[in-house]
Amino acid sequence: MSEYVEIFEMGPRDGLQNEKRQIPTAEKIGLVDCLSQAGFKRIEVASFVSPKWVPQMADSGDVLAGITRANGVSYAALTPNMRGFDGAVAAKADEIAIFGSASEGFSKANINATIAESLERFVPIMEAAKSISLPVRGYVSCVTDCPYDGPTPPEKVAEVAKHLFDAGCYEISLGDTIGQGTPETITAMLRAVLDVVPADKLAGHYHDTAGRALANIEASLALGVRVFDAAVGGLGGCPYAPGAKGNVATEAVNARLVELGYDTGLNTEILTQAAEMARSMRVEG
Ligand code: HMG
Ligand code: MG
Asked: Which residue ranges traverse the bilayer (predicted)?
């Protein structure tokens, strides 16, 4: 039996959040329903953030209400504060994610808080989630480079990752938000994080701006990471990280993992179909 490596599908959230055209809710639901048949265990479909900050995600509640939920798939949503938490719970998200940064510049630009303030803001979310046994994932952004502050010290990533892990996040997703990481900087960052969070509680979330995401995934595999975030069609980017391109494309990650002898449990034909669907959503309708 080949070893299982999980791809956490990000397309409906990280993939679409930066699209300029307001994508009709029905199209988003169609994409999620297609992805639900591909064999993913987790799909990030929604984001309960301020619609003034990210207008594209304003219909997140309607997306969660409209999808046909597949057995065994966890449908995830981002929650920056208690208001977002309440929205995600009302929409019956199966899990939520809090998102922090290892760099002050991005933290301020993305969630209008210092790193310390953001960690304080997450406390009531963690408490509320725990009281209803809702799993919480934690993101750390800018794990190698920040569009505002330059290179990120690995120790800072480890500090924020440990904080989120100790606070109760079941997994820490390490974001190369602007896709400037290299196998060397990713390795140095992971070595620091692995001192404080075990490999089986980590995920790699690599954007593909410089075309190095697959190489960064291989570097991470070598250090024991077995979960990777990716978006079908390679869509996406963060509105608060200028120049950031999309997550690495799911179909490319899947092909490389299979080539390396890993089992991803994904149906290639459905992935291809979903990638076409996602790419067509980028075109002005
Ligand atoms: P703020 O302006 O400091 O907060 O924003 P505020 O409390 O003053 O609220 C401002 C307005 O938003 C108010 O409305 C609130 O009611 C409303 P007004 O009174 O002006 O009409 N509001 C909300 N509305 C709906 N849902 C909410 C909510 N909260 C406040 N939850 C805030 C602070 C965190 C809200 C804002 O900065 C925000 O929404 N930021 C999110 C930015 C974002 O979504 N970025 C992309 C996702 S992160 C990412 O892509 C990186 C990742 O992929 C990993 C990686 O790649 O590294 C995860
Ligand atoms: Mg991202």
From this structure: none
